[in-house]
Specification:
Layout lengths: L2 E2 H17 L1 H11 L4 H15 L8 H15 L4 H15 L5 E2 L1 H19 L9 H17 L3 H17 L24 H17 L2
Antiparallel strand pairs: 1-2
Length: 210
């Protein structure tokens, strides 16, 4: 079944809810290796993005994503704003003029989003950033599309790979961002950006698993 524009709106609302519910958890993770503001920033940014959704709710999926992306850039502090803003704006470019998406369209959107994040943040797999959740998630999603599995299973595999990628950041030494200032002391802590990326992709699996 296609992922409709209304499904996308439901997912964005679910993202806002899960980030609000996990605000303190994300901030605690960030207090260990960052500025202790990731949860607060993401919650504030998504609340602002969702408040603007009604003004574009009748538009295409790409416009929805771009609206979210621009609002996140304007309202999320630290590195999160530019990175998550880029994620949604690049996904918006990939889905321009689409009123519904196939699983393959979603995979293409995630790929465009990840490429944008990597270019903006100059981060690669293994640097202990959100890329460590997004990259394996994309690989799993593309493989699921190639395998021809149904949408629910593809999204489940994507979220599971993001979760594993998130957990795999724990032993890593950060090479990018605020956490990199800690050097070896950044090891042993789960990356907050990888965690919020996992939560966002898990929300997609939960909402779009029809």
């Amino acid at each position: 079944m296609p992922i409709t524009r209304d499904d996308v709106i439901s997912w964005l609302n679910a993202c806002g809810q899960t980030l609000a519910e996990n605000k303190d958890y994300l901030t605690q993770l960030d207090s260990d290796i960052g500025d202790a503001d990731h949860g607060v920033n993401m919650d504030r940014g998504f609340k602002a993005a969702l408040s603007k959704l009604p003004t574009v709710a009748d538009k295409d999926i790409g416009t929805l994503f771009k609206s979210v992306g621009m609002t996140l850039v304007q309202t999320v502090g630290g590195a999160g704003g530019p990175l998550y803003g880029t994620f949604f704006m690049q996904a918006g470019t990939s889905t321009a003029n689409k009123m519904e998406m196939s699983t393959a369209d979603w995979a293409a959107a995630v790929e465009a989003a990840l490429n944008g994040v990597m270019a903006r943040g100059k981060a690669n797999l293994g640097d202990k950033t959100m890329v460590d959740a997004l990259s394996p998630a994309l690989a799993a999603l593309k493989q699921a599309v190639a395998d021809g599995v149904d949408q629910s299973e593809a999204l489940r595999r994507c979220a599971a790979a993001a979760e594993q990628g998130m957990k795999d950041t724990i032993p890593l030494v950060a090479r990018k961002g605020r956490a990199s200032y800690l050097g070896e002391r950044s090891a042993g802590h789960q990356d907050p950006g990888a965690t919020s990326s996992y939560l966002i992709l898990k929300a997609a699996a939960d909402v779009w698993a029809k």
